[in-house]
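Friendly challenge for the regulars: who can give me the structure tokens for this chain first? No prize, just bragging rights.
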Amino acid sequence: MTRSPRPERTKHRRLSLPELLRTAVAGPRSRPLRTVLSALGIAIGIASLTAITGIAASDRAQLLAELDRQGANLLVIQPGTDPAGDPVSIPSTAPGMLERVDGVDGVGVIEKVADAASVYRTSIVPASQTGGLGVRVANLGLLDALDGALADGEWFDEAGASLPTTVLGSTAAARLGVAEIGQRVWIGGEWHAVIGVLEPLGLASDLDSMAFIGKEWADTRWPADAVDPAELIDTEQASRIDAVFVRSLPGAVESVRPMLARTANPYSPYLAVSKLSDLVDARATADATLSSLAVGLAAIALLVGGIGIANTMVVAALERRGEIGLRRALGARSGQIASQFLTEAAILALFGGIAGVVIGALVVVGYAASKQSVVVLPVEVLVGGPIAALVVGVIAGLYPALRAARLAPTEALRAV
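First reply, four minutes later:
Bragging rights claimed.
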């Protein structure tokens, strides 16, 4: 008896990548509004990531630049005390030696003058009424070392430093009633022409109440031996240097600082070297603090975007039960259904991520423009944003894809 041949098993062909992409794109294209709203959820998440990270990076760059400008890379050297308790002065050769140190960007020097050298508005003001103002000798590099600015006039040049001229700090000018350059003030029994008025010096605010005179003129008019010996730390060296301000290159403070005392006074390196403020420490902590905050907020934003995609895909699976049942009845395997939904989620997330990066970058640019600060967009965010969105989309779409794949054809067809 001849047996009838067994029917051949239907071989299920796997979807190729182009077919899978066409199938996955067909669903979102048929529902453009839902697609836009779905992509918008992840776009907002990635835009938040980009904006938060970019704004934090821009603020950090602006803050560090501001710290550098105000003195985070500014060190001050002052007379000190050796282990025996004897005072140690700053030699007159110190400024030239300090300028040769690697990483030093500028050296400013202020020196004391005789006690009689006070500043007054007129010659008839009693000597005891100093108004809390003082007089200091300044070298040509002081303004640059302090990164100071002039409200009016000019700083000393080689010619002006040898003449009876003065540059007033902001507080000194206000107390003396000097509103413009060209006026004269009484210093040490002589008239001095005001050639400049400084803006407030920020961290070096104690210098705002000073009247500065040029070193060449001071050396001629008030030689070192005219200074009260009680104010000199070391009368043998006859150094009247009160302080040396050393500005390092950005980020070189810690490498420069240990070399300053020995360079300034090789024979007795017990000078006091200090940072002008705690902004050096603030510079180190600001980066870590702002970065941690940005990462935490960005993670929350991504989580919200992922939940949005998961919710959208679950709703889509429920609404498309009829389509799923029809495809299963026509021979589609559960794995193919899962792949379709997973690919749809990945596509939505990828396009949402790209849109989010663009939106976030525009937000950062707008924020920086409103603050008149630098624009910083980390490359890792611009590249990693869409990748992160893709990963989040795949993870968020995993459950809806499995749920859609597990729908029984008979149950799914009831929705047709």
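The radius of gyration is 37 Å. The mean pLDDT is 78. Your move, everyone else.
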